[in-house]
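1st attempt posting a full record on here, be nice pls
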Amino acid sequence: CSLENDTVIGPRVVFRNGVVVHSRTRIWPEVVVPDGTVVKEHLLNDEYAVKCEGS
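the predicted structure (as tokens):
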């Protein structure tokens, strides 16, 4: 996988082959990112009450 700058990866996240995660992206928790996925926005697990808010 390829991780760009300023990414946040939460606990128990699994990246499959060929994943690209763009800058300033948050992924968590317990998410499985499928083969060849290009992540351009936040991926959040719906089973968790998680908010992503910036300053």
